[in-house]
Amino acid sequence: MHHLENIFKKVNSGSRIDADDALILLNHAGILDLADLASLVRKKLHPEPIVTYVVDRNINYTNICKSGCRFCAFYHDSDKAGGYVISEKDLAAKIRETISIGGTQILLQGGLNPTIHFKDYLKMLRFIKDNFEIHIHGFSPPEILFMAEKSSLTITETLTKLMEAGLGSIPGGGAEILVDDVRNQISPNKYLSEQWLDVMRTAHKLGLKTTATMMFGHIETNEHIIEHLIKIRDLQKETGGFTAFIPWTFQPGNTRLEVTEATAVEYLRVLSVSRLVLDNVMNIQASWVTQGEKIAQTALIFGANDLGSTMIEENVVAAAGVKFRLPKGEMIRLIQDAGYEPRQRDCFYNAVETG
Amino acid sequence: MHNIPLSDKRLRSILDKLTDEERLNFDDGCLLYSSTDLIGKARLADFVRQRKYGKKAFFVYNQHINYTNVCKNNCLFCAFSREEDQEGAFTLSAQEVRVQLEKRLGEPIREIHVVGGVNPSLPFEYYLNLIETIKSLRPDAAVKAFTAVEIDYFSEIAGLSVTETILRLKEAGLSMMPGGGAEVMNDRVRQKLFPRKIGREKWLEVVKTAHLNGLTSNATMLYGHIETIEERVRHLISLRELQDETGGFSAFIPLAFHSKNTGLSHIPSTTAFDDLSNIIAARLMLDNFDHIKAYWVMIGEKLAQLALSFGADDLDGTIIEEKITHMAGATSAKGLTRDEMIHMIKAAGFEPIERDSFYNQVNI
């Protein structure tokens, strides 16, 4: 208990906490203490009582994936029943709809599909850029690694070509837990922690901003969670390229991992410790997609300053049987009700003029 | 206690009162609703909650029986009620209730929660028979049945006084009353939403009579429709006054309004901030109530779990087949297993205590 007090003092005085402090907080601090501490750090980074959100759409260009991760309910093995690769026509229709409702970006992600060639990805990006004025937040590190491998290019070369074709930023997916012992068990065919971090490092150095995520609530321990956070913080010290961190809980429905889903209180604990450890990452996003709108709203007192996307389409979490909805009007209502000012943002957290 | 950090300095005077165990007044109640310093308010509620129960969190292994959805009251906020000849109308016979109970006889159920519509075609004997049926199959479970609204109606059809009605029900095996039907005890709200249902005076009178005749009861408030903060606080104070008089209330349960399929479907769902503020205000205003429930059916399992740190000490029951809120679009589960309930409580850092209807610990 005495140690907890010391950590509280550390945070209150604005000092950075270390991995041991973070673990003690995650294991032992009271939930309201965590809320207070996380709010303090949040307020220091965001003195204005503003909560941001983005209007966008998830477009999953394929659900065929060779990874076969045990936690995934979305992927299909090949073009067996249910497997798809999006057509240009469907892609265009989805983007058109996104723009029509004031969307500023698309989140473009998909499985590691052996039938898609590197030139196809470039073609897809150019097709979007030639036809629409929209930001492309796309291709998480596993996809980039997969492309590089298939085309025998370096990460730098791969990213450079994608950027030339129109890629605007990279989502932080595929991080899961950045500890190889954990990865070997839940996603044995996916890339290792260092590879994930390396893609992000390279992207940041090339000027591509990225987010970072963490999927927890499966087989990881609290130590693993802290290790993940520290790895993100260390890379951020080096590059400054992460715009936001998004922790979310594993949804066990329709997957091959039989575990009990992390509860809301566990989610909020991890969220607030994330805010405390990642004092060099500006934004912490609440995950209404996995938590629902009620816990997402309470996340605002546990360190989150962003409610993520209105997401007019989401397929991956929905495939695990979890289907929450949060239209823009509702997003605004929740933010105001919590005593904050809502602000639509773009991918770089700049305010979007809404007419 | 004085070092509790409060961003909203107006909460300071409430903290002082709580420290001295002094009663909060009407203005304090309004502030507990209107302040957006949710963490500060939670601190106050948690302080009182911990003083009473430490880390204990209660739940009951129970079963719900909704015996009829036929109802003559036609409340605007209800998605459950039907006219007698309307599609989807149902009334369970004693035999059908028996079947529902028999399906779960292997489970250690401690409480049967029974509520229904005000159905004009049922005689008083139906209700006595209903309780006797339950008692015969579940002699060890407490029958918690009939809101003040139903009991008032029984007395009318039976031509008995409220006292006599209650005594007859008690004789049949009734041991507790649920807290429904109070809605918001206010004439303005009643005229707009439930003009045919009994109002404040009658509700309080029936409940008082029950308490004086040895029945305990719960109390509720349906919030999140057209009521104002002031009306909420007056409702709480009315309950507190009756509790001063009888001591018969066991728990208070704030009920979050669900608008889907009701005459008020334009009203958006309650927010987490409002749900938690209701728990907090109840805990702090109802200083003479032992228990404040976070009713997971209405606010969802996730928020109910969090509510344990915002003043709630009870998560109600495991419940199978909740109908009333789900017909109004609730997305919560229809039942939780005992293991799920225990896991939820432990994961929130609390100690699960399985209880009976009267908050005696049940050893499992």
Please name the defining characteristics of this protein.
heterodimer, A: 355 residues, alpha/beta, TIM Barrel, four-stranded parallel beta sheet, three-stranded parallel beta sheet, 13 helices, 45% helix, globular, B: 364 residues, seven-stranded parallel beta sheet, 41% helix
Would you write up a description of this structure?
- The complex is a heterodimer of chains A (355) and B (364).
- Chain A has 355 residues and is of the alpha/beta class.
- Chain A has one domain: Alpha-Beta Barrel (TIM Barrel), CATH 3.20.20.
- Chain A is built from 13 helices and ten strands.
- Chain A has helices at 2-12, 19-28, 31-45, 88-100, 118-131, 141-151, 155-165, 180-186, 193-205, 222-239, 264-277, 288-298, 328-337, and strands at 50-54, 56-60, 105-109, 135-138, 169-170, 209-216, 242-249, 283-284, 306-309, 341-344.
- Chain A starts with a helix and ends in an 11-residue tail after the last strand.
- Chain B has 364 residues and is α/β, with parallel strands linked by helices.
- Chain B is built from 14 helices and ten strands.
- In chain B, helix 2 (26-34) crosses helix 10 and helix 9 packs parallel to helix 10.
- Chain B starts with 11 loop residues before the first helix and ends in a 9-residue tail after the last strand.
CATH H-tier superfamily of chain A: Aldolase class I
Tell me the series of helices and strands of chain B, N- to C-terminal: HHHEEHEHEHHEHHEHEHEHHEHE
**What's the total helix number of chain A?**
13
Largest interface: A-B, 27 and 28 residues
Low-confidence spans of chain B: none
- Would you report the number of β strands of chain A? 10
The major sheet of chain A is characterized as: 4 strands, parallel
Largest sheet of chain B: 7 strands, parallel
Q: What structural class should be given to the helix and strand makeup of chain A?
A: alpha/beta
Helix-residue proportion of chain B: 40-55%
Return the CATH topology of chain A. TIM Barrel
**Bulk shape of chain B:** globular
- Using only C-alpha atoms, the radius of gyration of chain B works out to 20 Å
Number of helical segments with 4 or more residues of chain B: 14
The best one-word shape of chain A is globular
Structural class of chain B: alpha/beta
Reported CATH architecture of chain B: Alpha-Beta Barrel
